[in-house]
Amino acid sequence: MGKKEGYQIGVIPGDGVGPEVIREGLKVLKASGERFGIKYDFINYDFGGERYLRTGEVLPNSALKEFKQLDAIYLGAVGHPEVKTGILEHGLLLKIRFGLDQYINLRPVRLYPGVKTPLANKKPKDIDYSVVRENTEGAYCGSGGAFKKGTADEIAIQESINTKKGVERCVRYAYQLTKKRNKKKELTLCDKANVLTYEGDLWRRTFSEVGKEYPQVKQNFAFVDATCMWMVKNPEWFDVIVTANLFGDIITDLAAVTQGGMGVAAGANINPEGVSMFEPIHGSAPKYTGKNVICPLATIAAGAMMLEILGEEEAAKAIEKAIMKLTGEGYIKSLQAGKMGLSTIEVGDLIAKFVKEG
Ligand code: IPM
Ligand code: MN
Fold first, then answer.
1. What is the model's pTM?
2. Which domains does the chain have, with CATH numbers?
């Protein structure tokens, strides 16, 4: 996406701590706007648990249509303790991911300087890779059904759908990213091809075929269970990992912990030809709601990803630099909620200040 005069950004603060972290994220985006002369038009949407409980509406199709006119979406968190599990996940988050065909879920895994990792003796240089998670298919497709529900003979079928087109565009994106990162130039396909042989075969064949277009990228294979082990034992082996939707969901929570916690892990739901959505990986964390103790860095880092994809690379880098100053120069004690030594608002204020100062 090329640079523009001004950006129309849809903002969905959502539930729980979502509004608090989004408030800080917007503060930082505005600071970047002041410094780099970027104009934003933020359009607020109150979708989430509260609205659902009030009106019974999760995300109307008309809103999805409206989203298609935006430049990007900035999302806080969805998940409300009084709403039955699955309603907001499917009706809001997945509806946007699928509806806008955001087929890539990009999750960088980076240990920032000064941040403690539970992995012994690992340094920032050892934990620096990206996970490319397929984001519109697999076990998330919602295909399947229940039969004889509530009886002793009950059957539940949950299917994983993998299409040639979906797998191909995902692995191609991963190859391109590996090339662009220009680090080890190694792409690892993470799967379970030893057991899930049908989808494994499709992924592996497609991975090899598309790989011919990228002779400079080395191809690796790792089963998902072993991937978890390597992520803990030797994270420095990874450059880019590409994987299916469910595996990607699971391994990126593990990855987030290795980078110091959910407080800093950001993700981008990308449609390279359309509208993308940026969010922290963490959920709505209801128990911390309104306490001004949650770490907003994941949301702030997601804002930086948004700027990068919009083509505002300088501004994106300035935000990343500000995060590294905060963590690396001892401003923040921990990224855990309540243990930062700073409030949510103070973290946002400091990052905004660093971004403005350059
Ligand atoms: C994530 C979340 C979502 C997912 C949930 C909330 C549907 O865990 O973004 O990783 O499973 O993709
Ligand atoms: Mn998840």
1. 0.96
2. 1-111+262-358 (3.40.718.10), 118-258 (3.40.718.10)
User: Which ligand 1 atom is the nearest neighbour of the CA of 283?
Assistant: 6
Displacement of CA 36 from its chain's centroid (Å): 25
Those residues with Cβ within 8 angstroms of residue 284's Cβ, 6 or more apart along the chain or in another chain? 14, 15, 16, 17, 18, 49, 76, 77, 78, 79, 80
What interhelical angle do 18-36 and 297-310 show, nearest 10? 40
297 lines ligand 1 (CB under 6 A): no
Q: Is the pLDDT of residue 4 over 90?
A: no
Q: Which atom of ligand 1 is nearest to the CA of 279?
A: 9
How is the beta sheet containing 266-270 ordered, strand by strand?
39-44, 6-14, 72-77, 276-280, 266-270, 104-110, 128-134, 240-243, 186-191, 218-223
- Cα gap 146→123, rounded to integer Å: 48
pLDDT of 185-195, one tens digit each?
999 999 999 99
* pLDDT tens column, 86-145: 999 999 999 999 999 999 999 999 999 999 999 999 999 999 999 999 999 999 999 999
CA distance 53 to 47: 11
**Ligand 2 midpoint to CA 281 (Å):** 7
Structure-block tokens of residue 45: 């949407």
* N-terminal to C-terminal alpha carbon distance within the chain: 25
- Write down the pLDDT at residue 284: 95
**Cα–ligand 1 centroid distance for 246 (angstroms):** 9
Site to probe by mutation for ligand 1, drawn from 15, 93, 97, 109 as the one with most ligand atoms within 8 Å of Cβ, is 93
- Counting from 1 in the atom list of ligand 1, the atom nearest the Cα of 97 is 12
- Compute, in angstroms, the gap from residue 266 CA to the centroid of ligand 1: 12
Ligand number nearest CA of 269 is 1
Give the pLDDT score at 3.
75
What are the b/e assignments for 177-215, b being 16+ CB within 10 Å? Answer: bbeebeebebbbbbbbbeebeebbebbbebbeebbeebe
